[in-house]
Amino acid sequence: MQPLDKALRNQLDRTVRKARPVAEQAAGAALEQLGVGEESAPGYLNDNQRALRRRLRAHARSLGDPLKEGAQAVTRLIGEIAYEHWHRMLFARFLAENELLMYDGVAVTLEECEELAEEEGHSSGWALAAKLASTMLPQVFRVDSPVFELTLAAEYQRELEELLAGLPVEVFHASDSLGWVYQFWQTDNKERINRSEVKIGADELPAVTQLFTEPYMVSFLLDNSLGAWWAALRLSDTDLANAESEQELRDKASLPGVPLEYLRFVKDEETGNWTPAAGTFDAWPQCLAELKTLDPCCGSGHFLVAALLMLVPMRRELEGLSARDAVDAVLRDNLHGLEIDQRCVELAAFALALTAWRFPATGGYRKLPELHLACSGLAINAKKSEWLDLAGNDTNLGIALEKLYNQFKDAPILGSLINPEASLDNETLFKQKWEEVGPIISKVLADERDEERSEVGVVAKGVAKSAVLLSQKYDLALTNVPYLGISKHHPRLIEFIEKNYSTGKYDLAMAFIERIREWIKPNGSYAVVSLGEWLYLGPYMQYRENYLEKHKPLLVLRLGWNAFSTPIRANPALIISQAGNEKESSFSLSDYSANKKIQDNVRSTVSGSISQVNIAQIRKNPDMRFINPESSERDLLVKFADARSGLHAGDLYQFFKMFWEVENLSWIWEPVQTAVNETANS
């Protein structure tokens, strides 16, 4: 499958941005009709509508909408209804266009849904298609949610259907469409938040930090971690000694569907032998069933899907599995994901399910193993007494719930930074494993009729599942860490990072790298798209010193300001590292930050130069900056002269601008004209 071209991506952008306000208006009108926000229920409601109203009010409170003097706020509820209804329709079309929308065990088209709608008691074919999609995706859409019992007014429903029908079929076959969907949903909100210059709290964080990871970044990090491990199995010493090029080695190591086109090799100057640029990851499990991967900021699941597509052919080759069994095995054993925003968790789950169903020779739609995905940012809006009441007479469950409440009360701000094991010690009365908490809650609430208690139980099970994933250790962590400078941090986030990850306090990206180090096993590794400034700017010197003490870089690649296909102000770096402090070891280092276009970065990651650098060389650099060895070995200017102000034109202020006067300031040097060639006669 090919990614969206620019024209299709722009069309998808326009459609999603138009859909959001329509869906929100529809949600608001539907809630107003039921009087959900009013103190008293309208007299015209029947018994079923009154029951739905009560459930929606309880659900609104579980989302954090307050109840004051009988009036129920519905701001968060409107947002959820709009998102869920639109995306259920969107997913239905994805399924239909891929011949995966199932009706009584048979794939149906949207046209056939239209024919069946009246017979099935639905207002339109789209309504039936959406219902079928939610039934197929119980891990995406909560089956018992009152949100889907709400019917949107016909005029809004038609407008949403028309928007969705207007998208070309190619959108639903592209490899990256789902990745763009959420970013476009948040675009207008993100722009509004950035203009407001508010501190970024729970309501703003998902929109501000969401950033779609470019496919070449994902492929590069996977190829040079998991792909390098695989190459070490496939390539002989003779291959590494006699190969004429990197491409020759890629061809020998590749599998059908796994071309390893971004896998980089470096040549030892003394022996002439090739080796993977990031190493061979020999300490990983030799049995792939034991390899655990995690994306702690999984967004729409880009890394997880790419890892699935690599691991399935590998496990088929090593274990002799069928395509279907290999897909199920990878979902069951290898892939784990966390995300601060529940809506992104749904997208990631759908992306994995869709990829699994349309993987060749797997038979299409079927029930999949439970996906190891969880929202690390679920809000606990219940009172502590209501929360603990879920335990009933179960003492161990009560202790577990209290631990969860204390640790996750700020989850919408802290997300995957939370470490559920941090407060546990040998003296604790806590006897329950995190894995056991969710099933026990389900058993306790099996026959629950109280709406408030049921909603609290749903959140508690979600938090318990998040605690499981947050507590485990992994062989490989893969992610695009969130970027957010300290000036934008919420006070609670500042406090938490200062206490737990103080060396990374200047940016959320750096704090996350420190958190990731806690997840990986002693011989584990991580591969991340990271903020690039910390590698060389002066204010980050302390962090670089800490990094070189506690982390072992394997491959560091700077991309600069032109790394993304959308106009995003980001200066990323691709980093593969391990825990450790081998001060004399070497690693691979490249700097492509001078590239002017994303296409140049893509080419550079495939064939650009890579230097081998000893960590001791980096330590010798001024401020421990990650710069190429050719630069670090040269004499510094200070050896020859004291340049107090630097070189400049005689009339400096006529020819130069201040940084705030330049819209697209870049760290790339540009030539400037410092004098005129001719002087006009006055």
TrEMBL record:
Pfam families: Eco57I. It comes from Vreelandella glaciei. It catalyses: a 2'-deoxyadenosine in DNA + S-adenosyl-L-methionine = an N(6)-methyl-2'-deoxyadenosine in DNA + S-adenosyl-L-homocysteine + H(+). Its EC number is 2.1.1.72. Keywords: Methyltransferase, S-adenosyl-L-methionine, Transferase. The lineage of its organism: Bacteria, Pseudomonadati, Pseudomonadota, Gammaproteobacteria, Oceanospirillales. It comes from the Bacteria. This is site-specific DNA-methyltransferase (adenine-specific). Residues 334-552 form the Type II methyltransferase M.TaqI-like domain. One of its GO terms (biological process) is methylation. InterPro entries: MethylTrfase_TaqI-like_dom, N4_N6_ade-DNA_methylase, SAM-dependent_MTases_sf. SUPFAM superfamilies: S-adenosyl-L-methionine-dependent methyltransferases. Transmembrane segments: none annotated. GO terms for molecular function: site-specific DNA-methyltransferase (adenine-specific) activity. PANTHER family: DNA METHYLTRANSFERASE A, DNA METHYLTRANSFERASE YEEA-RELATED.
